[in-house]
Amino acid sequence: MINDDELIALFNAPTRVLKAEKVLRKAGLPCRLIPAPREVAEGCALALRFNVSEQDAILAELHRQALQPRRTYRKQDGYFHLIPLKQDP
């Protein structure tokens, strides 16, 4: 279950989401591997769930490891809202 104000990161392949989870856990960043919600699932059936308070640290670590998610969503008021990913300068 995904609670309001939690984020999910979707990836383009199961191998990438599994690697991302491993990298984040090794870095001491809390996340959980979950089935991708059908409202936003796009190809890969897995997603990473994490708290909004960890957003910057998690996305920065994924960027450092070249494992940027395809899309990131925040759940608010029962709905998923797309979070624009920051582009490289």
From TrEMBL:
InterPro entries: Se/S_carrier-like. It comes from the Bacteria. Residues 7-74 form the Putative Se/S carrier protein-like domain. This is Putative Se/S carrier protein-like domain-containing protein.
